[in-house]
Fold:
Amino acid sequence: MSGIYIHIPFCKQACHYCDFHFSTSMKKKEEMVLAIAKEIQMRKSEFKNEIVETIYFGGGTPSVLTSAEINFLIAEVYKYYSVSDNPEITLEANPDDLSSERIIELSKSKINRLSIGIQSFFEDDLQLMNRAHNSAEARKCLEVATQYFDNISLDLIYGIPGMSDEKWKQNIETALSFGIPHISSYALTVEPKTALNKLIQTGKIAAPKDEVAQEHFAILVQTLEANAFIHYELSNFGKSTYFSRNNSAYWLGKKYIGIGPSAHSYDGVSRSWNVSNNALYLKSIQEGKLPNEIEILSVMDRYNEYVMTGLRTIWGVSLDRIETEFGTEYLEYLNNQSRKFLDDDLLFIENGILKPTKKGKFLTDGIASDLFIVN
Structure:
């Protein structure tokens, strides 16, 4: 099983918290679509014996593409790769791009999963984050989308300055009222080169507080688990047959090809990433060259990565796998390093699998970094 990720590097406007690679100028959009199609073709030899199970349009804002452009890129994947009979094909979309007509159009395409960037149902939060949509658009698009798509995920952000626990609960309850089967939720984080960072530095808005985010996370886990969602990855919650197959493949170490500027790829032994510059990407692809850098992963890198992804998911870290794949000294190191977290009730071992406790979940990334082997 493997996947293809397609990065669409355009957005209508820049959200204050975002540090992903995108451009707000659409001038080169048609050129970019053709370059992405060419990269899809150029890389077909990487998946000679692989069946593509997932195709994922991420970004940026992939919903700025026309349905014809999306259908063209999906057709290119089908032309050059073996695609399974029942692939998961996801489009990340913003509410302001999802008019009723657009949703109906998409429902007639091969897209069978929508990941909608709601972030909040409150006007003041959306303005603080500089989102392109408003609260009414968020609700309207879900009303229509749920009539045409069964498999929908939505994004919510918690820990927003000034967001009370009550308001956060209302956000979750509103999402649940639409019968959505998958929710991805993230704490508002302040990345160095973002507008949000500048607004905090100049005192225009307060910095997010860790303890507020931790409380919001606890409310989120409790509410969603009470509504039959499975907390299968640190930031992801799904009803039993609605886990994101694309994201699960990343966490389970499956192969994927990332197409488009700044996209990452992984083949089990090496990782590669395309240049994060639209002009350089276009020039390189037009000259028939892949604009990427490759890093061969050492045993230590692969161990660290497995610990990181394992602890974030319900699949945990298999102690047997650590021993067979990485060796006894890695297992001994992990056992020694994890002892204090086991004693503090932040980790536990069940059937040979190391996992975070309820108390440890919010602290997973910090715990994982303490279990890494660093040169």
